[in-house]
Write a structure and sequence with these properties.
Elements lengths: L2 E7 L5 E7 L3 H10 L3 E7 L16 H16 L4 H10 L4 H15 L4 H6 L7 H13 L2 H58 L5 H14 L1 H21 L2 H13 L3 H22 L4 H10 L4 H15 L5 H7 L4 H13 L2 H59 L1
Antiparallel strand pairs: 1-2, 1-3
Length: about 400
């Protein structure tokens, strides 16, 4: 029987590694999942290569939301489970998702529960998904649970789009602008430099500065700095893959002006929406907090939720440990406290999530509104400055010729 080496993090966030003997990688992953170990690397001994535990599933959230919505309608209409899966798999255009659904159907036909069958494909159906399905199967309300799941996924997609709008647009604009500026300095400015050298004119200070920058960009030092810059990005990405690096970078992100408050609102919206959906579906609070921590998307928030879970497990209420973390706004903890006292925790969490999702939409619009004029001014000054500095000697030369 093969031996597998693994590396990951436990429920406290500490890094763990070791070896396990099993028939397949899926068996090892299932065993480690029961031990609440989040696997980041898993390989057969002697054939080591990394298998990431996230991303690369080949199925996006929108496809999953549509499937879940259709599945809930079919179950509500009284169609047998296997027939639902067969129909949905047959109409799937995504071949990867089609294979997964056929695998789930085959497992259900073999006598396994739907949640256990979905758990085999954890890259597609995450812990939140199959735990809610299990709660729906146990309570006999699978159609209702699937409707809640589809609504949750749709709102989660909306949050992801908010992040993309807030981050990708400015980064794309600045990257393109940076490329244009480097192209000007590398290819265009040297042409003007040769022209000025041939004319023998005195160059003003702005022109000399731009020519100096152009010579630096075109020299070996410019390429060395570019290589260091690219290497630094890869090193930062690699460091972010470690628990310590992820926590440090997420801490910095939450403190960045404009971006930090937005990311905090997104994290709060995701936390309250996820926990509220799980509680309303009958998932126990401790298991709900554990799942919520793993799907929080931010290491700082994840650590705060884990600390809260330990306190709740020790017998404390939910609201006091949340206050102690200092991560969640006062309004959030106060509303959760009211939800605990009134016994309407799930409804209160959903209301908080609705409020913060609206706040995220407003914050994204404000952020883009604030950044657009800043980017335009910066790009105008830099590009315009380069162009004007190249024409200054020509203006001086034309003036001299006109004087003669």
């Amino acid at each position: 029987m093969p031996v597998f080496t693994y590396r990951g993090t436990n429920k406290t966030g500490a890094t763990v590694q070791g070896e396990r003997t099993a028939g397949t990688k899926a068996e090892v992953k299932a065993t480690l999942a029961r031990e609440q170990i989040n696997v980041s690397k898993l390989s057969e001994k002697g054939k080591e290569f990394s298998i990431p535990s996230f991303g690369g599933s080949g199925v996006d959230s929108k496809e999953l939301a549509i499937f879940t919505r259709q599945f809930s309608v079919m179950i509500d209409a009284g169609l047998p489970l296997v027939q639902c899966l067969e129909i949905l798999a047959g109409q799937q255009e995504n071949k990867t998702f089609q294979k997964v659904l056929n695998g789930v159907r085959g497992s259900v036909e073999g006598g396994a529960t739907l949640s256990a069958s979905m758990k085999q494909f954890e890259k597609i159906f995450d812990p939140l998904y199959y735990n809610m399905v299990e709660a729906g199967e146990t309570g006999g309300i699978l159609d209702t649970i699937l409707q809640r799941l589809s609504s949750y996924i749709e709102k989660n997609v909306k949050l992801k789009r908010a992040v993309q709008s807030a981050m990708i647009y400015p980064i794309a604009v600045m990257s393109i602008a940076g490329g244009v500026i480097i192209l000007l300095l590398w290819k265009v400015v040297p042409i003007f430099t040769q022209l000025f050298n041939g004319l023998g004119v005195d160059l003003p200070l702005p022109t000399r500065i731009v020519i100096g920058m152009s010579e630096f960009v075109g020299s070996i030092y410019g390429f060395i700095i570019a290589a260091f810059f690219v290497g630094g990005i890869f090193a930062l990405k690699s460091w972010y893959g470690t628990p310590q690096g992820r926590f440090a970078i997420d801490t910095v992100i939450l403190k960045v002006p404009l971006v930090g408050p937005l990311m905090r609102k997104i994290a709060v919206a995701r936390f309250t929406r996820t926990l509220g959906t799980l509680i309303s579906s009958g998932v126990p609070i401790l298991e709900g907090l554990d799942i919520t921590a793993r799907t929080s998307g931010n290491a700082v928030v994840e650590r705060a939720i884990i600390a809260t879970r330990k306190a709740v497990e020790a017998g404390r209420s939910l609201v006091d440990p949340l206050k102690d973390t200092g991560v969640f706004p006062g309004m959030v903890t106060q509303m959760i406290g009211v939800g605990e006292q009134t016994g309407a925790m799930d409804a209160m969490l959903q209301k908080i999530a609705d409020f913060y999702e609206d706040e995220v939409d407003a914050a994204v619009k404000d952020l883009l509104t604030a950044m657009e004029p800043i980017m335009i001014v910066v790009l105008g000054v830099v590009v315009g400055g380069i162009v004007i500095s190249m024409y200054l000697p020509l203006f001086s030369l034309i003036g001299k010729l006109a004087g003669h």
